[in-house]
Amino acid sequence: MRRSQVNEAMARLLPEAAVTEAILTLEARRVRAMLEADVDQLAELIDDACVYIHGSGACDSKESYLAQLRSGALVYRAIYVSERDVTVHDGCALATFHLAASIAVAGELRDLNSRCSAVWSLDEPRKLLLFQSTPQAVSASQFGRT
Fold first, then answer.
1. What counts of helices (H) and strands (E) characterise the chain?
2. φ and ψ at 2, to 5 degrees?
3. pTM
């Protein structure tokens, strides 16, 4: 590879690395706001047209999701995020991660173990466009069976 090709490749990677870092920062802000039930902060982060798909299959709009938090019908007690990855595409970034959480839904405690996807716009201000949570299956090997 010639030096000019290396420089061009580096020029493409640097902005992508900056976007990746920005998206990870936004995700951290979103999780913190969820734990603190900071509806105002979440309202700033979530696009008005966002679709929020829970692991149960229930879908929320931005307003219905925020209303649940505001009313206390949905309470995040603990959230642990791992295995983060961000892929940058034209106009958006896809964040994928593992989520373990403890929540209360209408007073009923639930533990979550999910794979999640969050799509963020790259336009300023960056906003959450779509969230999808999929429960992670428990494998038979976890119970000593194969």
1. 3, 6
2. -75, 160
3. 0.82
